[in-house]
Amino acid sequence: MDxxxxxxxLIVGVVVGLTGMGGGALMTPILxxxxxxxxxxxxxxxLVASFFMKPIGAAVHLRRGTVNLDLVKWLCxxxxxxxxxxxxxxxxxxxxxxxxxxxxxxxxxxxVAALGLILKTYMTLRERVRRRAAGQSVARGPGAPTIVVRPxxxxxxxxxxxxxxxxxxxxxxxxIIIALIALYPALQASNLVGTDLVQAVPLVAxxxxxxxxxxxxxxxxxxxxxxxxxxxxxxGARLSAGAPAGLVxxxxxxxxxASALKLVGMSTxxxxxxxxxxxxxGSLLWMGVRTSNGLPPLARTELRxxxxxxxxxxxxxxxxxxxxx
Length: 325
Fold this sequence. Notes:
Elements lengths: L2 H17 L3 H11 L5 H26 L4 H26 L3 H36 L17 H18 L5 H10 L5 H26 L4 H21 L5 H19 L4 H25 L6 H10 L17
Helix pairs in contact: 1-2, 1-9, 2-3, 2-5, 2-10, 3-8, 3-9, 4-5, 4-6, 4-8, 5-7, 5-10, 6-7, 6-8, 10-11
């Protein structure tokens, strides 16, 4: 038993249950960069661990009613065969440089995921501003809102996401959930997380089956991950209704960016300068974005003003999944 891997699994499990993101996007680069596991083995072992991890968070959201089963059906129609096929595509293009190509593919997938998370945070802020301007409450109740499912683009999202997951283990939470935001902006944060976690179960199962047959699965790595992942994803799912998901998304985007740049070959010195620039410049830029949309530059200032502006007994429940954005 590797307790370092178990601790990493616990942390990633909490993030997955909390946001629906971060499984392959965090775990696989951790395995490659921190624990020095070969990229293909990291992808294979992480996908098998995710097969056991995802159903726990999915079950919590199913009980809470934060899952759109119509979306799950159409997503799986595209993602399940595509995820299984991703393993064969990876083998076909691998050749003698398979491990290096997996590492590069993972890095570029993480770059897309990081940029998508930034876009998601901005879209969430714009939605809050729009609702406030229309006189609607920012707080939202539980349950899935009614939306009109668009089968063809939904199947396409599943197919593309499944292919990426099969090749890199990244995308079942990050890329697909971002595409769902663009296609179905009316979905609440909790509904997005719940729907994505449920559709990820058959998706990851198909990808894991492919890697068990043709990948480089390491039983010892997966077993250690599961010791931490299983309780972690349950805790994260239980916390997801009241957690500051905007803050989690920004932290996750920062980690994904760092991992991506390292995987594509950036030097440690260059990476340090980029991350410092992103941390400082990005914070200032985001304060400017909030100000230009009529919000205080700091989210915690807005939260304090909202909680003190009303009497506790009469206050509306605050949707903290949108806070810190």
